[in-house]
Specification:
heterodimer, A: 284 residues, alpha/beta, Sufe protein. Chain: A, Arc Repressor Mutant, subunit A, GMP Synthetase, Chain A, domain 3, 4-stranded mixed β-sheet, 3-stranded mixed β-sheet, 9 strands, 43% helix, globular, B: 389 residues, Aspartate Aminotransferase, domain 2, Aspartate Aminotransferase, domain 1, 2 domains, 7-stranded mixed β-sheet, 14 helices
């Protein structure tokens, strides 16, 4: 028996905003019958203010999937699209009190349906169904991409394959991809920030090479990677020589047409701002 | 709210008579059955009486063919590893595609150690594919292990026939008999079955005790290595109170299996089945309607998810279980449903009801009364329910 909070049970028993909005301004759908859960979200949006005036859902799934969908519709009503877009799966889980670890993928489904709906609105209301064919699929049983896994690891600070399975379902069926998931975890978590020593007042140029790396990593981790992750990409530090920082863009960023702009306009600007105005960033 | 417990394939309550039989062996009669004084002799005597009761339950020719274990999982592991260690030159094992994890996981391990395992499939009604099985038997088959009845659907496999074919090829035959105990009369001595696993808590003994039947003359290598207990076939001080409880429960189960309680149980089960299939559209029976243990029915409700159904049933105090992905920790829909080729829109919405001899018609009728509304409400909020229109 799952340890569901009273709020999960309350939303499960009395789901709010069930149904589909006629002539919706946005329709987002994720999941499938095969996966065992699916969510279709329809929104009514004020064209002037972009405020979500109404939201309805239809869900096929377990109690936590129904509760996550229901609470999501309550959370986004009255918010602008920009405000609503900031809602993460953790916010959905928090709003419900909590979700069992094994059920976190239900909250992720809510977040993804919202993303799909926002995309749908930007495309003039045409329904958007998230299928992740264009990306590198890691888990073929549940069709989970590398980007989705990286994002779940970063957002929720996951450290084990089992946790990744609970949040994304990847690895939950045949288990063949568990090795690959471990590799992704190793890759993502090897960039994690070591605990900072108290050198915050020292000038960058006076730091030892290890301190420099740590300081750069901290900014990459806190200010840069979360942004790149939103687009399914990331960045890794390759070398530091004096004030020159060499990095490699990975994931969706690597082949992106805006890669140079990302490198100079975003990564270099952020490092200048946070560490030293004389830093230059180069592609490794 | 009165509980309507329809999950007896998962576990059963300890029968009051069983509990009473166990009680003296905790505080008063605590002797170690191996020791040399009257207190110990009492424990030993009680244990041997229980052994006879379990032997009678399965129809064993000799009481010493029963080895007490901690659970059916231990019994299954013991049988599998005994077979491969006793026949080190045989590297092939046959099983079915719908076994319990206590069979699958040891076999997956053996596969990693170089063994070849064949998983015999089932048809859409969950029936064993005998032709595929016959073709799979080899001269180096060490063991055939096939469950007697399936825990999810109740489908009974023709294990006597499967066992005879295994013996003819020189392979050992083991069956996981957990789901048939107390649900039909058993007479293993007149079969070719070499080993049979059973679990106490499925028939009103407590959790934490089981047994393995091993026919006399069967090559055996112990799994739990330790002292000389159980004729050196299972190390570890015998759990006397639980073994006594298992014995008493065996006696009750044997009486039940030979009484008309089963006929009454099957009639209520059929009432439940027909009531639900008639009242709920897009529902279908999983399993073999002919060869099925009398207490089990498994029905799929299309376009809805099993855990949601169970959570709503809880509101009425009704306890059942589901093969849906969401009720297991694994996210995977039941391997039994998938082996039977059940469509995904039905696999996720399967619910199993397993009755006991105490189940009443009023309880069954309550399920028939409330479940149609639950399914209808869940379909209303499902994005797929209109697909079929």
């Amino acid at each position: 028996m799952w340890a569901y909070t009273d709020k999960v049970m309350e939303h499960f028993r009395h789901p709010r905003n069930v149904g589909a909005i006629e002539n919706a301004d946005a329709t987002g759908q994720v999941g499938s019958l095969v996966c065992g859960d699916a969510l279709k979200l329809t929104l009514k949006i004020n064209k002037e203010t972009e405020v979500i005036e109404d939201a309805k859902f239809e869900t096929f799934g377990c109690a936590s999937a129904i509760a996550s969908s229901s609470v999501l519709t309550e959370m986004i009503k009255g918010k602008t699209l920009t405000e609503a877009s900031k809602i993460t799966n953790q916010d959905i889980a928090d709003e419900l009190g909590s979700l069992p670890a094994e059920k976190m993928h239900c909250s992720v489904m809510g977040m993804e349906a919202l993303e799909a709906a926002v995309q749908s609105y930007r495309q003039g209301g045409k329904p958007v169904v998230f299928e992740q064919e264009a990306e590198k699929i890691i888990c073929h049983c549940f069709n989970v991409s590398e980007e989705a896994i990286i994002k779940a690891i970063r957002t929720n600070h996951l450290t084990t394959v089992e946790e990744v399975t609970f949040y994304t379902k990847a690895g939950g069926a045949c288990g063949k991809c568990k090795g690959e998931i471990q590799k992704i975890l190793d890759k993502v978590n090897s960039c994690a920030v070591p605990t900072a020593t108290d050198n915050t007042n020292k000038k960058f140029t006076d730091l030892t090479i290890v301190e420099k790396i740590k300081r750069i990593e901290k900014v990459l981790e806190e200010d840069i990677r979360p942004q790149l992750n939103m687009d399914g990409g990331s960045v890794e530090l390759v070398d530091v020589n004096g004030l020159t920082v060499k990095v490699r863009l990975i994931g969706m960023c690597s082949g992106c047409l805006a890669a140079d702009a990302t490198l100079k306009g975003f990564i270099e600007r952020t490092l200048k701002e946070k560490i030293d105005p004389d830093i230059t960033v180069e592609k490794a | 709210m009165k509980l309507i417990y329809l999950d007896n394939n998962a576990t059963t309550p300890v029968a009051p008579a069983v509990f009473d039989a166990m009680k003296p062996y905790f505080v008063e009669k605590y002797g170690n059955a191996s020791s040399m004084y009257p207190l110990a002799a009492e424990s030993h005597k009680a244990m041997e009486a229980a052994r006879q009761q379990v032997a009678d339950l399965v129809g064993a020719a000799h009481a010493d063919e029963i080895i007490f274990t901690g659970c059916a999982t231990e019994s299954d592991n013991t049988a599998i590893f005994s077979a491969v260690r006793s026949f080190p030159n045989k590297k092939h094992i046959i099983t079915s595609a719908v076994e319990h994890p206590a069979i699958f996981h040891p076999l997956h391990y053996l596969e990693s150690q170089g063994y070849k395992v064949d998983y015999i499939g089932v048809d859409t009604q969950g029936r064993f594919n005998m032709d595929q099985y016959k073709a799979a038997l080899r001269d180096d088959t060490a063991l055939v292990t096939v469950m007697w009845a399936n825990n999810e659907t109740g489908t009974i496999f023709p294990v006597e026939e499967i066992a005879a074919l295994a013996k003819a090829r020189g392979a050992l035959f083991h069956t996981d008999g957990v789901q048939v105990i107390g649900k039909m009369p058993l007479d293993v001595k007149n079969t070719q079955i070499d080993m049979l696993s059973l679990s106490g808590h499925k028939f009103n003994a407590p959790k934490g005790v089981g047994a393995l039947y091993v026919r006399r003359g069967t090559r055996f290598t112990e799994f739990m290595m330790g002292g000389h207990q159980e004729k050196a076939r299972r190390g570890g001080t015998e759990n006397i109170p639980y073994i006594v409880g298992l014995g008493k429960a065996a006696e009750l189960a044997r009486t039940r299996a030979n009484s008309d309680a089963l006929v009454k149980m099957a009639a209520l089960r059929d009432r439940l089945q027909n009531g639900l299939l008639t009242k709920i559209p897009d529902s279908k029976l999983n399993g073999d309607p002919q060869n099925r243990v009398p207490n089990t029915v498994n029905i799929s409700f299309g376009y809805v998810e099993g855990e949601s159904i169970l959570m709503h049933l809880n509101e009425y105090g009704i306890c059942a279980s589901s093969g849906s992905a969401c009720t297991s920790g694994s996210l995977e829909p039941s391997h039994v449903m998938r082996a039977m080729g059940v469509d995904f829109q039905f696999a996720h919405g399967s619910v199993r009801f397993s009755l006991s001899e105490d189940t009443t018609q009023a309880e069954v009728d309550k399920v028939i009364e409330v479940l149609p509304g639950i399914i209808e409400n869940l379909r209303k909020i499902s994005p797929f329910s209109r697909l079929k229109k």
